């Protein structure tokens, strides 16, 4: 007959496990609270967006450019794209005769270069500087797989 072995755990070890479970329960409780608040904020933001759309439509109808009420200002502003400057390398070469000065100023856009060279050819001539880790940041996210559970409406 096989002997049965019974192991006993120390009470201290069981107490330590309970502490970890307590932390997990506390974390779960706070994360559930965050989820409830985020849902509330999302509902509020949707209502704000709806009301802002109505204010915009009413202002267009009234041909108003600006309206102020209760410390809020609703107005139309012009939107602009970012300005860009392009320097022709041939013209720059004529101005900067010194090789060091010219090559210090010239950068090649790899997006454009891909139309003329393969990725392997670019890798052979490119110098890659990897990104640096600047620190850590804490965040609580809702993974994309969790968004939209419950099927289509």
Task: Write up this protein.
It is a single chain. With 153 residues, the protein is mostly helical. It has 5 helices and 2 strands, in the order αββαααα. It has helices at 11-62, 89-95, 99-105, 110-113, 119-125, and strands spanning 66-69, 72-75. A two-stranded antiparallel sheet has the order 1-2. β1 and β2 (72-75) form a beta hairpin.
Major sheet: arrangement of strands: 1-2
Write down the Rg.
31 Å
| Average residue-wise pLDDT | 82
Number of strands: 2
Low-confidence stretches: none
Overall morphology: flat
Main sheet properties: 2 strands, antiparallel
Q: Count the helices. How many? A: 5
Keywords:
153 residues, mainly alpha, two-stranded antiparallel ribbon, 5 helices, 2 strands, 50% helix
Q: Gist?
A:
The chain is mainly α and 153 residues long.
Give the arrangement of secondary structure elements:
Elements: H1 11-62, E1 66-69, E2 72-75, H2 89-95, H3 99-105, H4 110-113, H5 119-125
Antiparallel strand pairs: 1-2
């Amino acid at each position: 007959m096989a002997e049965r072995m019974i192991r006993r755990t120390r009470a201290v070890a069981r107490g330590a496990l309970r502490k970890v479970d307590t932390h997990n329960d506390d974390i779960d409780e706070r994360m559930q609270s965050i989820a409830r608040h985020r849902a509330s904020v999302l509902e509020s933001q949707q209502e704000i967006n709806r009301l802002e759309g109505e204010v915009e439509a009413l202002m267009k109808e009234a041909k108003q450019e600006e309206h102020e009420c209760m410390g809020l200002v609703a107005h139309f502003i012009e939107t602009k794209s970012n300005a860009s400057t392009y320097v022709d390398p041939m013209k720059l070469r004529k101005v900067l005769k010194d090789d060091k000065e010219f090559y210090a100023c010239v950068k090649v856009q790899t997006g454009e270069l891909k139309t003329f060279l393969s990725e392997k050819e670019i890798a052979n001539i490119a110098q890659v500087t990897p990104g640096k880790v600047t620190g850590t940041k804490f965040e609580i996210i809702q993974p994309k797989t969790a968004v939209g559970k419950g099927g289509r409406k």
